[in-house]
Amino acid sequence: MAHESFEQHRAHLFGLAYRMLGSVADAEDVVQDAFLRWQRADAVASPRAFLTTVVTRLCIDHLRSARVQREAYVGPWLPEPLVASDRPPPDADVERADTLSMAFLLVLERLSPVERAVFLLHDVFDYDFAEVARLVGKTTANCRQIAHRARKRVQAGRPRFEASPGEPARLADRFARAVQAGDLAGLLELLAEDAVLYTDGGGQVTAALKPIRTASHIARFFLNLARKAGPDVRVHPVRVNGQPGFLVTRGDAVENILGFHVEGGRIRQVFVMRNPEKLRRLSALPG
C-alpha cells in the first residue's frame, strides 16, 4: 500500500526535483531517497507535504554541493534532456510545460538554491507562502522577499513562448532539411540574427567551449558538421523538454540531442547535448 500511495506523488516530486537539479538521474535519486525516508518515518499526517519537504531540502543540499563542480564545468552546462520517446512528461500540467524547456531551465541557473526552490514552489507549483515557508524552513515574510528577488531575476531573462501551434515543429523540420541540403540562405532565414548555440560536451567529447552567437556563425557551424557526417548518421525527430528537437545517432549509438527555442517566428536558441554522461539513458533508438 505504501508503494501505491507513493506512486500518486511520484510525478509531482520528479517534476519538482528535475526543475531544481536539471538532471534526470539526480532527480530520480532524490525522489527514491524521499520514498525511503518516508518508509522509515513514523506516522505521517500528509505524505505529499512530507515528501515534498524532503525532496525540496535534498535538492537544495545537492545544488549547494554541486556549485563548485558547476563552476569548474568545461564549456556551457545544459540540463540533462528529457526526450519524449524516452519517458513521459514529469507532470501533465500544460500550463507548466514551458517551465520544462531548456531555455527556462537555463534561466533558473541564475538563482541560488533557496531562491530556485521558493520560486518554483510558489510561482510554478502554486504553493502559498505559508506552505513554502514550511517546506524550506524559512519565515513567510522571508519567502515573500526571496520570491520577489527571484522573480525579478527570472523575468529579466525568461524566454517568451509566443509561437503559434505547430510553428516550432515546422521550423525545426525546416532547419534539419536546410542543414542536410547545405542551404546556408535557408538557415539564415530560420535563425534570429542574435541567435545563440549552446553545446554541452562536459569536457569529455569535442564541443564548442563557449556559446556560438549570431545566425551566420551558427549556420556555418551546422553546415560544417553536416559535411563531415558519414553515411551512418541518422536524424530522428523527437520532443526535447517538451519542444521539437532531434536525436542524432551514428550507427546504433546516440551522438547528440538537439533542442530549440522559437521566439518571434525564428529560432532564437539552439541546444546541443553531446556529454556522454547525459546521453547514457538514450542508448536505444526512439520507438
Structure report:
The protein has helices at residues 2-21, 24-40, 47-71, 102-108, 113-124, 129-136, 140-157, 167-181, 184-190, 215-228, and strands at 191-200, 212-213, 233-240, 243-250, 253-263, 266-273. The chain is α+β, with helices and mostly antiparallel strands and 287 residues long. The protein folds into two domains: 2-157, Butyryl-CoA Dehydrogenase, subunit A, domain 3, CATH 1.20.140.160; 167-282, Nuclear Transport Factor 2, Chain: A. A six-stranded mixed β-sheet has the order 2-1-6-5-4-3. The longest helix is centred in the first third of the chain and has 25 residues, at 47-71. It is globular, with a radius of gyration of 20 Å. The model has no long low-confidence stretch (mean pLDDT 88).
* CATH topology (level 3) name of the largest domain: Butyryl-CoA Dehydrogenase, subunit A, domain 3
Report the sheet with the most strands, covering strand number, pairing sense and barrel closure: 6 strands, mixed
The outline comes out as: globular
The total count of strands amounts to 6
